[in-house]
């Protein structure tokens, strides 16, 4: 029964994809002549997909390599966000004074677009790579901060009492109570943060012109090879989907434990 | 001088007076119970006595020292067990043993934790997590955790309140046996809503009237005729319709 359901779900999702492809083909044939059709997109992208690790030039590389550059950059920025965001979340969650002091600032910084941070990063670091990392970290860190903070606050008073009754040292309280109690919340934050980091990478690469899926997309737009834009868009979506699923899987394992 | 002394304790939450004029003294080796209906302020009382909560006025002293923060050398059993779900039964007990005996080796900590888990009959379940244990077993772990630190005084906050009647009766007997098995008289302050539980386990009993501004009854010594004591306690608790739940229990 469950098996049958799974097969049906997979079939249905393929039907959905087919319908969207159909709509895309119709649109490019009838309404928007500048939009390459699915067939044309595949035709012009084949080289990049079939030889994903081929390096022909700085901005002319297989889609696998481009994705790898972007993933590596995201990993660095995301790691930075986690390393800053997690302790910040713990501080905000455990100290009401700290919370009252910094919560308004965070609420103001949170909705700022990566497009606004990037120029500031470029001014500060004078190089595109650190500016991109700065932007990714700054934009993607907030879900980690907010979720960790909420996780710390959601720790039941009972657990705090246990720490007092057992006379746990602050460090033992942190490792045996605070951290395990907050871990599921932290991971929800990490998942959201990674999603944002992946969103930001495209903007960051576009503006800095560094090799990666976003940089490639922007370059191909300037070179008028529109089918490669679609290749990049599809790649970005697919990679983002896989990243989210991986984090979701880790999160589920954590909640079950 | 008594080990634990509460003098003129009063506590309000906002405009609501919970406790008023509470005086109580516990000698070492004494097991004292406070019986009262739900929401009469019992838990507030035991939290103040143990230092988890600060009273608005009055003083708490333990071994001659005024109490600030949770009392030293004390153990506590909570109604809802308060075990850490990510730790095994053994690790939960061990967590209490480590700070109590900082000079011990890691092996000694584990041995001490195992010893008390075995005493409550959970030697074989030592590696299970709380989620894999029944309510009664969880409370046994919680009791083992409190005893394993070998505290000079125990605070029991409705220790069996969340259990079904049969499990409750079993654990009452086990607690009594455990108190006899540790080799020294146990000093304990227990909060309960069961008159029988109080009579079974304690040397002295006080009834706590229903709030607002609850106060303690005169002492009821546990000696001689238990049936008559039970009647007198129940009468006290139900006079003025203080505790309809206990009226039922007596009838």
Q: Taking strands numbered 1, 2, ... along the chain, how are they ordered across the largest sheet of chain B?
A: 6-7-8-3-9-10
Number of helices of chain A: 10
Could you estimate the helical fraction of the residues of chain B in percent?
25-40%
Shape of chain A: globular
Indicate the low-confidence ranges of chain B by residue numbers: none
Helix content of chain A: over 70%
Strand content of chain B: 15-25%
Distance between the termini of chain A: 27 Å
Spatial ordering of strands, largest sheet of chain A: 1-2
What does this structure look like?
The complex is a heterodimer of chains A (257) and B (251). With 257 residues, chain A is mainly α. Helices cover 84% and strands 2% of the residues of chain A. In chain A, helix 3 (63-94) packs antiparallel against helix 4 (96-109), helix 3 (63-94) crosses helix 6 and helix 6 (128-153) packs antiparallel against helix 8 (170-208). The two termini of chain A are 27 Å apart. The termini of chain B are far apart. Chain B contains 8 helices and 10 strands. In chain B, strands 6-7-8-3-9-10 form a 6-stranded mixed β-sheet, with helices on both faces. In chain B, a hairpin with a 2-residue loop joins strand 1 (4-13) and strand 2 (16-26). The chains are: A mainly alpha (257), B alpha/beta (251). The interface between A and B is medium-sized, with 16 and 21 residues.
């Amino acid at each position: 029964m469950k098996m049958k359901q799974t097969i049906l779900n997979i079939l249905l999702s393929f039907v959905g994809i087919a319908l969207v492809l159909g709509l895309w083909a119709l649109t490019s044939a009838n309404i928007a002549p500048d939009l390459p059709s699915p067939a044309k997109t595949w035709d012009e992208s084949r080289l990049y997909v079939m030889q994903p690790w081929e390096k022909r030039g700085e901005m002319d590389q297989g889609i696998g390599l481009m994705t790898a550059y972007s993933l590596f950059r995201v990993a660095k920025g995301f790691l930075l966000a986690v390393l800053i965001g997690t302790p910040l979340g713990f501080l905000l969650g455990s100290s009401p004074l700290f919370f009252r002091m910094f919560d308004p600032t965070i609420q103001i910084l949170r909705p700022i677009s990566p497009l606004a941070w990037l120029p500031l990063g470029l001014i500060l670091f004078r190089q595109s790579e650190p500016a991109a990392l700065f932007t990714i970290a700054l934009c993607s860190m907030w879900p980690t901060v907010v979720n960790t903070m909420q996780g710390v606050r959601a720790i039941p008073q009972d657990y705090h009492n246990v720490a007092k009754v057992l006379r746990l040292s602050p460090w033992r309280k942190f490792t045996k109570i605070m951290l395990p109690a907050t871990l599921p919340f932290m991971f929800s934050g990490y998942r959201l943060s990674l999603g944002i980091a992946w969103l930001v990478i495209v903007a960051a690469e576009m503006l800095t012109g560094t090799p990666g899926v976003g940089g490639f997309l922007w370059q191909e737009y300037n070179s008028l090879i529109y089918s490669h834009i679609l290749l990049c868009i599809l790649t970005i979506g697919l990679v983002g989907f896989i990243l989210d699923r991986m984090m979701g899987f880790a999160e589920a394992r954590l909640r079950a434990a | 001088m008594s080990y634990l002394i509460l003098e003129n304790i009063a506590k309000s939450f906002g405009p609501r007076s919970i406790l008023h004029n509470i005086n109580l003294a516990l000698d070492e080796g004494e097991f004292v119970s406070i019986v009262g209906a739900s929401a009469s302020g019992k838990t507030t009382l035991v939290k103040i006595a143990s230092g988890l909560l600060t009273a608005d006025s009055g003083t708490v002293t333990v071994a001659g020292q005024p109490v600030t923060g949770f009392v030293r050398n004390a153990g506590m059993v909570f109604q809802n067990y308060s075990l850490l779900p990510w730790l095994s039964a053994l690790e939960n007990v061990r967590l209490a043993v480590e700070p109590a005996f900082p000079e011990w080796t890691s092996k000694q900590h584990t041995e001490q934790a195992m010893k008390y888990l075995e005493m409550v009959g959970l030697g074989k379940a030592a590696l299970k997590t709380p989620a894999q244990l029944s309510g009664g077993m969880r409370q046994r772990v919680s009791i083992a955790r409190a005893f394993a630190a070998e505290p000079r005084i125990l605070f029991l906050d409705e220790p069996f309140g969340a259990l079904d009647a049969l499990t409750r009766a079993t654990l009452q007997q086990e607690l009594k046996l455990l108190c006899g098995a540790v080799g020294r008289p146990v000093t304990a302050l227990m909060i309960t809503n069961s008159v029988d539980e109080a009579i079974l386990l304690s040397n002295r009993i006080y009834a706590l009237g229903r709030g607002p501004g609850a106060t303690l009854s005169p002492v009821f010594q546990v000696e001689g005729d238990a049936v008559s004591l039970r009647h007198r306690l129940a009468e006290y608790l139900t006079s003025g319709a203080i505790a309809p739940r206990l009226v039922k229990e007596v009838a």
